[in-house]
Design a protein that fits this description.
CATH class of the largest domain: Mainly Alpha
Structural class: mainly alpha
Number of domains: 2
Distance between the termini: 102 Å
CATH superfamily of the largest domain: Cytochrome c-like domain
Strand order of the largest sheet: 1-2
Oligomer: single chain
Strand content: under 5%
Mean pLDDT: 86
CATH architecture of the largest domain: Orthogonal Bundle
Number of helices: 12
């Protein structure tokens, strides 16, 4: 009998030790949950990191063309996400009693897109060349639900570095004012602006390379700009090449090339508000670069 009692007591002690071991390693203790030191927390952190990495690759391939490589926005293509989404847009929604979370707002936007013209951005003077398409397969897009979640996790990862302060409003824009005298242009910087290697004065990326190819007869969203420096001076009889390019950027509806498909209902697909993100120097540099494309 004493042997059985001893063995039973030993088994109880071993079971107690085993349970304690699980608690100390699985992450079930409060301190482990807070510090992220348990096996479950470490595993989840690894999975979250993999999801963000996967989402970054999808964003770079499919989203950056309109929203910028780091969510800074692309003038005329897509709005700024970083930091505007966190510092301004979502707080506005919550103040208007939006009932859902930031994660679900981003996920639904990625999944369903914005197939209807956004009056929110129009009221702020932003017009984009196209509405945001749907991305989730359930809505006819190319992404699985897990990929939509990956993109969502990547976008939300920016929030950690964003302070809750209003986005600085850019006020030095040349806008649509064609009478402003432009400074001397720097073609090298203009090429960087064109290729989104540096940003416009507003902090956004220029939409040039997102909409226009430099290869002959290759159409992206707008016409190819191959040889534009030589062609531009032959389009309007009263405009030299630099003037025509300037008017095309600041006032794209002033002259529509007959028969070209880059217009809808008598309006150019090129947004008329691109100058709102450019300084006079930005515009001069872009023109200087485009003039080199012979």
């Amino acid at each position: 009998m004493s042997t059985r009692i001893f063995i039973g007591g030993l088994l109880f002690i071993l079971m107690f030790i085993a349970v304690g071991y699980v608690l100390l390693n699985e992450g079930l203790l409060d301190v482990q949950a807070q510090e992220g030191t348990g096996r479950m927390q470490v595993f989840k952190a690894a999975q979250d990191g993999l999801s963000i990495e996967t989402g970054a690759a999808i964003f770079e391939q499919s989203c950056a063309i309109c929203h910028g490589d780091k969510g800074e926005g692309v003038a005329g293509r897509g709005p700024q996400l970083n930091p505007y989404l966190f510092s301004t847009r979502f707080p506005e929604l919550k103040a208007a009693n939006y009932p859902n979370t930031l994660e679900n707002f981003v996920k639904l936007t990625v999944a369903g897109g914005r197939p209807i013209f956004s009056t929110y951005w129009a009221d702020k003077g932003e017009v984009f060349a196209e509405n945001m398409p749907t991305w989730a397969q359930r809505f006819g897009g190319p992404l699985r639900d897990d990929q939509v979640q990956d993109v969502t996790n990547y976008i939300l990862s920016w929030q950690a570095s964003v302070s809750a302060q209003p986005t600085v409003v850019f006020t030095n824009a040349i806008g649509a004012d064609l009478t402003v005298e432009l400074p001397s242009g720097d073609a090298a910087r203009g090429e960087q602006l064109f290729n989104k290697e540096v940003n416009l004065a507003s902090g956004k990326a220029a939409a040039c390379s997102a909409c226009h190819s430099l290869q002959p007869d290759v159409v992206v969203l707008g016409p190819s700009l191959a040889g534009i420096g030589a062609r531009a001076g032959n389009t309007q009889p009263d405009q030299d090449a630099a003037t025509y390019i300037r008017h095309s950027i600041q006032a794209p509806n002033e002259y529509l090339v007959p028969g070209e498909p880059f217009q809808t209902n008598g309006q150019s697909k090129m947004p008329a508000n691109l100058g709102n993100d450019m300084s006079a120097q930005d515009l001069a540099d872009l023109i200087a670069y485009l003039l080199t494309l012979k």
